[in-house]
Known about the structure:
single chain, 21% helix, 40% strand, disordered N terminus, signal
Amino acid sequence: MLNWAMPTTHRWTALAxxxxxxFAPAQSAPQPxxxxxxxxxxxxGWDGSATVTLLPGALPGGFAIQLSGLPGVRLVxxxxxxxxxxxxxxxxxxxxxxxxxxxxxxxxxxxxxxGFQPFPQPRDxxxxxxxxxxxxxxxxxxxxxxxxxxxxxxxxxxLTVYQQGGRPYAQLGVNEAPQLAEEIRTxxxxxxxxxxxxxxALTPPAGVTVFPTxxxxxxxxxxxxxxIQGTLTPAQLSDHYSAQLRxxxxxxxSRVTPRxxxxxxxxxxxxxxxVTGILAFRQGAPGTVxxxxxxxxx
Length: 298
């Protein structure tokens, strides 16, 4: 059975972003509105261990990065997720600007000013790839880190800049990383081997809207995910994206269809190493499919 708990703390950010973009400031009331209840339950997790707070137009208290007053940048709001473990929790800030380049530069300067440094990455390749958003715009996620000063832990940040509805947006996710030192060593190994390039950029089919929802790397692998809205089924989406993987030299090993999922396992060579790929689609609410692309290096 495929585990759809992605190795990324921000697989829920697209839903959160969509909610924030249309979320009105909360009114004083003893009971949450239906919108608040719906979003909170969607993001809190089935076991109820996480609590989610939406902060339209605001940052949480004590946020690690100074984002107020960035020129040309508007703060849309924050999704603040509190959970028992750092992997489940974190904060995602949504920002908008007048152009992608200016928004990206402004947020990167804020990260640098707060003491964050980029994770190691290859000089000749971008960390982007995976499910490109609808409209052909560029999409990449860049990861940053800040050591705690003592011990192996620290903070991890991810920055994704994209266009939606003709408007530039940025998702800035921050969460605790208890094993940050190990993550940095793993990222350095990926950079030396060029394994960030193992995820090809995949263009969407006609008639759907694709929202990249994040990505993450760990020991021996890299994963990206997306939410796809439209009338296509998981099987149809699998056929569309599989054709692109074959064109890039990936070889299909198997295809399984457990219940509402379509999962394909692949193999390919990357810089002389054998890499296994997994392309998976799962039917969610009507008209919505969750997509995942992963690589595992042995």
